Amino acid sequence: MSTTSPPVGYRAVLRVPGLRSVFVAHAVSMAGTVAAQVALSILVFERTGSPLLSALVLVCSFVPYAVGGIALSSLADRFPARRVLVCCDLVSAACIATMLIPGLPIGALLGLLLLTGIVAPVFAGARAASLAQLLDAELFPIGRSLLRAIAQVTVLIGFALGAVAVAAIGPTWLLALDVVTFVASAALIGFGTPFTPAVGRTGSTWQDSLTGLRYLRGNVPLRRLILLSWVVPAFSSMPDGLAVAYTVQTGAAATAAGALFAGYSVGSVLGELAAARLTPATRRKLVIPLILLSQTPAIAFIAEPSIPVAAVLLALSGSGYAFNQGIDPLILNVTGPEHRGRLFTVQTSGLMAIQGVSIALAGAIGTFLRPSLTISFAAVIGTAVTLLLARRALR
User: Fold this and answer.
1) What is the torsion angle, in degrees rounded to the nearest 10, for the CA atoms of residue 142, residue 147, residue 149 and residue 155?
2) Per-residue pLDDT reduced to its tens digit, 194-212
């Protein structure tokens, strides 16, 4: 009898029929989303001259996640995943296309952006639930890891090139390109991915969504794992809220803050790539070490390191985010198939919400303390809190 282990890593996931289309569609739609955020921020500022209204573009991109995650989470279970994914892409395409109407008020632009944010967690939940049906327990965390890696690379490249693209073709044409990316994503998913059936439909959308929340609240092991998946990045992302302030504190130009943002993203991708090549048992053993790695490097900010050193520290911190590959199988094991779409929708929306709150909180504290001290103290607290939560969740 052969003792050869089945292949692991991203290649094994991409060999599964239909999944190449899933990941290509993810890359295409992510690129369009980032482009839309950059284009809208510049377009709003050009029309109003208001930094506040321009900043609201990013707020409107993240805040609706909480609404969609709570009120619409059951859609990810009530209908076949492919249908949900295609509909979400087409709704997003329609919203962005409407933004192209000349003279549309700023309030309408932001309202349309809010709508795309509401459907985003439903899309993420349905996609994760479909992966759980298409991949076995060993490959499922690798599939989610690949989604995260693609997202980080796309954000890194998108924000770096977005302003250049706006300068070259203008924000309106960049928004039009975003419409094309969402339509392309819908086509890739609709014609290139396998069918997965709906798994749960008992009442109204709202009632089923509340049932999912009650299920999460009553399932103690699951609740602890989801909380851990929220709190770890909540602390490790705090330096993002102070990247510009810290850069100025060191005496460097504010534009050098981009190195700090890039450091965390690059580290996240490298961590995901490395962890994906390990066996499931090894990834499970590395959960706590990776969680500690995600928090402890930022403690060194108390010494006010130079920007290159700070970028390396944040890259180390970002690499620890691969801890998710160890807990994703545990989440899958303690979640009934009929609740997975709702669970992953809530997980995505909660993650976005808590990261937004933590970044805003870091910025608020950083107005009273030196940014270096704020980052370092947050890392100390984050190390203690996440270690405590990890021990409880993995007990």
Assistant:
1) -170
2) 888 877 666 677 788 888 8
